[in-house]
Amino acid sequence: MSEQISKENYEKLKEKLNVLRKRRAIISKTIGEAREHGDLRENSAYHAAKDEQGLNEMRIRELEAKLESVEVVENIKQSKAAGVRMGTTVKIKALDSGHEFQYTIVPDFEADILENKISPDSPIGDALIGAKEGDVIEVEAPRGLIKYKILEIK
Question: Any idea which fold 4-73 has?
Answer without folding.
Answer: Helix Hairpins (1.10.287)
